[in-house]
Design goal:
Shape of chain A: globular
Oligomer: heterodimer
Number of strands of chain B: 5
Structural class of chain A: alpha+beta
Helix content of chain B: 55-70%
Number of helices of chain A: 19
Strand content of chain A: 5-15%
Structural class of chain B: mainly alpha
Radius of gyration of chain B: 38 Å
Shape of chain B: elongated
Radius of gyration of chain A: 24 Å
CATH class of the largest domain in chain A: Mainly Alpha
Number of helices of chain B: 28
CATH topology of the largest domain in chain A: Hypothetical protein af1432
Amino acid sequence: MKAKNEADSPKTKSNLINQLGVVLRSAEVHHVKNIAVGNAINNFVSLLSEFVKYEGDFILELRGDFFFVNEFRIRYASEVMINFDYLVRLFRTLEIGTVIIKSGAGTNDIISLTEAFVKSPAVNPFETIQQKMSHVNSITVHKLKKIVEEDLLDARKMVKKSYFKAVSFTQGVMNKIQQGEKIALKKAKRMIVSLVDHIINQEQLLVSMTSIKSYDEYTYHHCVNVSILAVALGQRLGLNIKQLTELGMVSLFHDIGKLEIPSRILNKTSKLSDEEWQVIKKHPIEGVRLLLKMKHVDFISIRSAIVAFEHHMFFNNTGYPRIKKSFPLDLYSRIVSLADQYDAMTSARVYSRIPMSPDKALNLMIKQAGSQLDPLLLQFFINMVGVYPIGTLVILDSMELGLVYESNPGFVTRPRILILSDSNGNRVDAFACDLAEKKNDGDFRRTIVRTLDVSKWNINIAEYLL
Amino acid sequence: MENGEDIKAAKIVIQMFLKARKNLRMYPANNPVYANTLEDTFDKFKDFFYLTDKLVLTLRLYDIYYGEELIYHNNEQKNDNLAFFFFKDGLRELTFQQKMPFEEMEAFLKVISLDFDNEVLDDDTVTLFWENDFQYIRYVVEDEFLADEDYEEQAVSQVKKEKNDPEKFKAILDDSPPTGDKIEKVDIVTIEDSDLEMLFHELEEDANDKVDKFMDILFEIFYKAKSKEEFSEVADFFKSAIEYSARKGNIDSINKVLARLKKIASNDKVTDIVKENIQKIILFVGSEHIIYLLGEYIDSGEKTDPAPLKDLITYFDKNAIPPFMNLLSTLDTIHARKVVIDVLVLLCPKDFMTITKGLNSPEWYVVRNVIYILREVGDKRAVDYLLKKVNHSDVRVKIEVIRSLGELGDPRALPVLIECLSDDSDIQLKFASIRALGSLASEDARIVLLKNISAKTFHNKKFNEKKEYFHVLSRWKDQEMIDFLIRVLAKKTLFSNSKVHEKRACAAYCLGLIGSRDALPFLYKCQGAGHKVLKEFSDSAIKRIEHESQKRG
């Protein structure tokens, strides 16, 4: 019983994918007959033979950004992140969607698969691999399926529903807190679980919702957006689902202290006086006070209070509130600080009506790495939102105007976009296209040549993203 | 399925859920009933999966269906009603797959066995199922109740209300090449192994307890407080944090807070308000509530390091004694009682009288613990109280009293000990009295012991009792005692009298313990004795004396 459970456990599945990554990465550097590759293959075969004993075939499929083994979505820890990311990129480049390794496959079969993968040409890689593998009966490969727009539409609808539910819930919670009423934290957790679940399965879709900015409802959108961005970053860092839920909860309440700031200051459109700034700077402490009055002290309230207190404190111990005895910032505080800055900079707020474009915001954040922001976490954050974050307006080499609506971890410079106008500047019914798509000659169909400032051109991206 | 066997099997699984909810709540995880319930439930699942590979349950307010079949009904709106229990949290369907491992089923049963009515939880069944990350248990959830249904439509129309003018698109391209929007290229950074190492380190660090950090923040807020109300509020936060730490057994954190607070209070410049609030916190730490929480933690079976607890009680005053005394009657584990007893030994000098009140407890074990505490403290005032407990109805208490009287070394104990020596009701009591006389170590005690040994009736005592007498005598190592023992050892009898030989054997044993070389010639003689015990005891005594001599060189 124990052996069986171990063999088909999520960890074993994750180990198999990781080991396949090791095999292919080492084969990129060495010849397949090299001892390093040979050892990696032997390890893979050994894991595989244990697995197939209980599970039958090993079916590895790339769906969206995630691997599935025998229909199970595989979540990965940070220690296998490099190999997973590498394999996702490789599958996309080679246009491989599924690899089925049947029970009975041996070392020679895996060597054939490795050779076929590493020696594949740039043009029509999948067809070449398929042909090379045609003599290997125990392994079959299938082409990467294009994302069916209808499926995407359904997923988008669900994600949209969840997002607005979260915003509405946050609004309700904030109002209750302001009126001194008790709030149901069970419901808050339930809402966060729903968001985290979407982030795990549809990270890009939910992250795309954060690019919808509502000036009127900024506070509530901001809380939810920070929560989403923080959890998405947490997922990239390899946090487990319990930790992701905690992170989601604490980030939702990071700005709760603002409820205690008089609205005349909070909503002041002109420049704040020094005195008013001092009041604003009190919100981290007010946040701790509110949180501790809201619920009994437990693990979550402790973490929430820490994040509420520290989210404006900088990596180099500056920022606010100023403290007497310095201490290192909490991991969650540093994550939330990144998400908070990014969302705030890219949103229109009362004291900054013109939002920054996502790419400009990221560049500014890069400049702040090491001083205000944690440089290591920022690396992961940039990789998550991409070179062209969702909501970026772009001009393509075809002179079409596009809007980034989904980043592509396999090709960071080639996100999926919505075409908004043709090459003559005529508005078209927006349609999706994948910039990773190639023409028959192997060249890419479209390439970004320039980014534009959405706010400068006053494009309402909500019309397209919702 | 033929004959509806699967329906029957599904009904049995539901019955097992009900049974598991009861048994998992009632019994600790190491109880056989608990373990058997899990095993039985797993067996029932196996029975079902033998028939078909998936158990899909449709959940309604009062009913649970398997396919079209109603397999459970209860029309009460209570958590005892399994259908209602699932339904109220939004669960609408549950699916168990054939490959479900035992551990996953166990985790599922643990969740449904939680007492959601009485426990303070931020979770419901759905969030707990989710956190368990089940692989073979699937569920369909309805969560419309979380928010306003119409909000989405309103919000979407709000953000979409500003329409994009088609002319804008043209203008963008007309502004060709568009100016002002310098491409801000963001480089994607490759995550290197060294980055991952740093990340592992971060994650590892993050797993540490957060309480100390939280306390640091409370101190910062305390430093920034200005008004009386603000100080009082932060003091309350500290109290809550201390309560949490006590619940978790994190005594180190409490000590650190108290040390910092004491340091602040010792500063002459701080105001009375600050001092008052600090005092409030310190008093709270020594309160009945916190002491009970510490007791619960210690009693939970978690390992407790005594050192931080010892540090903590240096902050306690005499008011901490009664709650700790109360813990003596409520704690379940020996380990926890021992910890509390050690605490009371340290606290006793702060209020001796309150400790002695524990001698009136109706529970014999509390009385015994208090006697132990008094003995460990070594305060002679205890003798008066102990003498009153000599006639306690429980012999275990009596034994503890006698032992303590002996160790406290007060001459007033002598008559009581003599009286107990002649009490034939309990042999252990007698032994305790003999040992206590030894502990008294007085000349009077020695005389009593020698007198008893020399009495004719001594021969009739059981061998163990005789041996105990002689064992105790070994604490007097003077020549007079050695001579006495040699006389006993060398005593001749006309007839082979076993009772006399037993006494001689005991004397040999005692001489061995004393280590008297003068006794060796007499002991050698006894090596050839026909009496087995005398021979054995003499042998052992010789070996012991010779070994000791060799050691001394």
